[in-house]
Amino acid sequence: MRLETQIVIFLVVFLLGVTVGLAFDIQRVWRSTMRPKRWAQNLMDGLFLLLTGGVVILGVLLLNWGEPRFYVFFGLILGFLAYRWLASQVIFSVLVYLFNLTLRLVITVWNLVLRMVAVVTTPIAVPLRVIIKRARRPLNRLKRVAKSGVRRVYIMWKKLPGFLA
Length: 165
Known about the structure:
By secondary structure, the protein is mainly alpha-helical. It has a domain of 84 residues. The protein contains four helices and no strands. The longest helix has 72 residues.
């Protein structure tokens, strides 16, 4: 393999290592802001491992037909470490800010939708409440009468000769 090709492969794998570092920071942001339970953390760790591992393996297969060269592993590790040392803190802070901003925006939109639904349903709900409140007493009386009537019919039925003798 020519030297120029190896240098290009090294640089692409280096960028792949930077991408893995960015994905790791995204997972850290999710974990620090959402505070998931232990099983969810383990699930996300497994998914992260599968996804990043799959992307790395696919990248190596596409770049140099899967040949395990030293410079490929070195470029991947060097890209990840360079990202962690040089950009991770800044990117992590920006990602946390963006995540919180997005979360606030979603909550604000959700509250706005709920208010709109309340404004639309209030003219319908208020008269229904009044009707239900006024109909409650007669309906309760009717319910009591019906219960006592059913009880009386059952008692009379039971007194009939030969009832489930």
